[in-house]
Amino acid sequence: MPDGLLLILAHPDDETFSSAGTVRGLVERGVRVALVCATRGQAGSAGTPPLGTRDELPALREAELRAACTLLGVHDVEVLDYEDKRLVEAPITEIRASLVRAIRRERPRVVITFDPNGVNGHTDHIAISRFALDAVTAAADARYCPDDGPVHVVQRIVWPSPVLPWDEWRADVLPTVPGVDFLIDVARWRDVKLAALRAHRTQHASVETAWLRRPDPAALLVHETFRFGWGVPPSTRPASDLFVDL
Helix, strand, coil: what percent of the chain each, to 5? Predict the structure, then answer.
């Protein structure tokens, strides 16, 4: 049975947009999946009309995140307390220690985080990409955070592909696109992903725009794509499993 998967992401809803079907499929195979979310998304939308005040939004979005993760079967959800849209300002030694603890606790074989450009250039996505790679390498070095558990070597980091599903979804084209190193068929879990998207109720406008108002929204929920980031590369591209060759 493959060892665990750890997602290290920036905001509530990142997990669902990027990898909900992949996560649910792995959970059903018996893979332990955990998530570290660096912010509570307090700078995001409160919904239209608002579902709460600006002061209530962090708790609302954390609750939405936990509801979505329950649908996906995520074993453990840890939410850090950094400021949305200011994640780059997180003290490096502090966030490194938090992420190292999570990696050594969960001992994942694969980590999902954002690529160095944050997929869409979001500064928080870029910041968590940097922090995640720093922590993965530190978690394997006993000199870092010596009181935070035995060292652990992550075998592979993958990033959500820069090929967004509403830009390209055709199964015959996706294997030819640079950055599609893993092409995961998630059609079986399409309804679960849709339910997880809808669990992020404050973000309904983004969900509607990105997914549900497209000419064929069901087609966008059939595949999820990832790019190889670090560690052991897949022997063939695109691979159909994040754990292949490990």
Answer: 40, 15, 40
Strands 76-82 and 33-39: parallel
**Structural tokens at position 107:** 């001992």
**Residue type at 139?**
A
| Tens-place pLDDT, residues 20-55 | 999 999 999 999 999 999 999 998 888 888 889 999
Amino acid at 243: F
Please provide residue 201's backbone torsions phi and psi, each rounded to the nearest 5 degrees: -65, -35
Domain range 5-231, CATH class: alpha beta
Q: What does the domain layout of the chain look like in residue ranges? A: 5-231
* Parallel/antiparallel/unpaired status of strands 33-39 and 156-160: unpaired
Contacts of 77 (CB under 8 A, 6+ apart): 34, 35, 37, 65, 66, 69
pLDDT in tens, 176-204: 999 999 999 999 999 999 999 999 999 99
Q: What is the pTM of this model?
A: 0.96
